[in-house]
Amino acid sequence: MKLLIQLHTSTEMASYEGCALALTLATFGHEVQLYLDAPVFGLLMQPESRLHGMIQSLELYDMPAAWLPDDVFSGWLTGMLPIDLASQLTLVPDIVNSQDFEQILRF
Amino acid sequence: MTTNTPLLLITADPSHPLARLALRYAKAYLQSAANEDNTNINVSLNLFFYGDAAHIANRLRWQSADQVNLTKEWQGLAEQYELSLPVCVSTALSRGISDTDNSTRHQLDADNLATGFTLVGLSELAIMMQDNRYLMQF
Question: Residue B32: which residues within 8 A CB-CB, separation 6 or more?
Fold first, then answer.
């Protein structure tokens, strides 16, 4: 199943649970694309947060780089993050066809 | 190809309108399927409680009498249609909801998982989704 999982909630638990679901589904062969919205940026910047560690390991799960909103704030964020984490992030494409995904989940 | 039986991924807190909507959807789907089938034998619906929806499985969650008791409603539906009520074990434990086995394993004082609900690993959801079921999040 091809899924887009959007993380919008700024709590550590919600972002962890959304990302944990993404990694688990990827392990079982599902195609999962993560989208990290601005409210979770604060967690991404905390090295001790579980979200920080999980995004660092996306490549190990054969997952594509997580999408960020295409705005100035995202550019600032990637400049502030360690290279190994920033390399797992990319700006959301200009055109995203939601029909490409069988389901879009939101946490 | 998508199989006919939907899979409801319930993630909303019981106080969220989506939590009630999930129950309404399940009731309507099961009633409709039962009417077509004329029995309850072949009627099924796949459910998975994740995140804040794990609170629904807490038998000690008190609420005033004028509110819908989602825990009892799901238990009744599960009994009527022989449904499973799987709850992600890690999201349940992190919200203070545990069964006897996990309470023993994690040295917790007591258990409070409501009857009919079961704690399962997240892999159960991934396996349910292998069949390309029609997935809906509430």
Answer: none
Residue of A nearest to B130 (CA): A1
Residue-range definition of the domain harbouring residue A25: 2-106
What's the structural domain count of chain A?
1
Of B51, B126, B132, Cβ closest to residue A17: B51
Q: What is the CATH number of the domain that holds A42?
A: 3.40.1260.10
**What ipTM was predicted for this assembly?**
0.91
Stated pTM of the model = 0.93
B68 an active-site residue? no
The pLDDT tens digits of the residues spanning B9-19 come to: 999 999 999 99
Are the CB atoms for B6 and B25 separated by under 8 Å?
no
CB contact burial B99-110 (16+ within 10 A = b; e otherwise): beebbeeeeeee
A58 near A30, Cβ under 8 Å?
A: no
**B135·A25 Cβ contact <8 A:** no
Please choose, from the candidates B49, B40, B41, the residue with its C-alpha nearest in 3D space to the C-alpha of residue B8.
B49
Q: Which of B57, B78, B87, B88 is labelled catalytic?
A: B88
Å between B38 CA and nearest CA of chain A: 31
CATH numbers and ranges of domains, chain B: 3-137 (3.40.1260.10)
**Three-state SS at B59:** coil
Parts of chain A with a pLDDT under 50: none
